[in-house]
Amino acid sequence: MLRLCVPSRTLQTVSKGLSNGQFSSKILKYRFVGSQPSTFTKNLIIRWNSTLSGKNELKTTFSEEQLALAREQRLKGLGPFVSKLPERWIPYAELMRLEKPVGTWLLYLPCSWAIVMGAMETSATLGQTAWMLGLFGVGALIMRGAGCTINDIFDRKLDDKVIRSVERPIASKRVSVRNASLFLGAQTAVGMGILAQLPANCWWLGLASLPIVFAYPLFKRFTYYPQAALSACFNWGALLGFPAMGIMDWSTMIPLYVGSYLWCMIYDTIYAHQDKKFDIKAGIKSTALAWGKNTKTVCNVLATSQFAMYALAGINSGLIMGPGFIGGLSIFAYRVFTMIKKVDLDNPDDCWKAFTGNIKTGLYFSYALFFDYLLQLMGFL
């Protein structure tokens, strides 16, 4: 129908202009070899450019000022280590979240509890325990990085709709999906190498977590409980630490894992409250949105169950009467319940502060268990 109203030369020019986005009457003037485009053609140009402008506005989620601020915050947040890496390496370090070690710590802490409790049950030497703690530390760093890379690959079309994640390497086009996939393969290979250093009983148990790791990014698209999938894989070390020390004590492993799972549900829900305003617009689901104003009530119930599970793990392992276990668990409980009570779920900065505070909370319990282990080595327990 348009062809009946517009000269063929105009249509040819318009079609070429379309491939380049917007175009102007100057281009048409050049195309008509010195002749002036008609009034109709000028109007066509104006309407087309207006349409394109409208589409671009729909695609733009944030203002230039917001994007500039996000970029500035990302650069400031690189820290003293990542910022000194070669420029080409920095996006890959960001894919692993090396500049944000909180996730690595939270992945590692349940590993440390399982290793030390397993060491006490088997009367392991200090050297063996230290080796496993170190090996799991490196494994936590690598596998957490792999998990973040998987997440960024799957979420690349969602991350640019949330201001906190708009500067992530793939979302900001600093790393291609192909290169990120190759990097993921390298991380997975290193992770498998670390797993190979563990006793054979750990292999099948470690590999069993991989399907959950790969499935987690999909959960936020279909369910309000992606935290359930994250918690399932993020605390796998609470199971893996025991066979690493040569014991398969399921009566201790399962309650320690369940307790850690519930802890992760709590702190990751608080974490999700940072982005709830953007998540609603982007169609991203989370427990923060599912629980809403009931979040603190639900978290208190989860925390009560969490420490009941930890107490059961202490009873079944025979470690409940250790001064470190009792004192450490008491401090742990106090800090978790206080966090739930005081956090302002409508303040993103306060949510982040509460979330990162879980590192110290978990470390206190690690120190307490290690204290009991040292008492055992010295013959006092």
From TrEMBL:
The chain crosses the membrane at residues 105-124, 130-154, 175-196, 202-219, 228-248, 310-334, 354-375. The keyword Phosphoprotein does not apply. Keywords: Isoprene biosynthesis, Membrane, Mitochondrion, Mitochondrion inner membrane, Transferase, Transmembrane, Transmembrane helix, Ubiquinone, Ubiquinone biosynthesis. InterPro entries: HB_polyprenyltransferase-like, Prenyltransferase, UbiA_prenyltransferase, UbiA_prenylTrfase_CS, UbiA_sf. It catalyses: an all-trans-polyprenyl diphosphate + 4-hydroxybenzoate = a 4-hydroxy-3-(all-trans-polyprenyl)benzoate + diphosphate. Its EC number is 2.5.1.39. Pathway: Cofactor biosynthesis; ubiquinone biosynthesis. Its cofactor is Mg(2+). Its main location: mitochondrion. One of its GO terms (molecular function) is 4-hydroxybenzoate polyprenyltransferase activity. GO terms for biological process: isoprenoid biosynthetic process; ubiquinone biosynthetic process. One of its GO terms (cellular component) is mitochondrial inner membrane. Belongs to the UbiA prenyltransferase family. HAMAP family: UbiA (MF_01635). This is 4-hydroxybenzoate polyprenyltransferase, mitochondrial. It comes from Maudiozyma saulgeensis. The gene is COQ2.
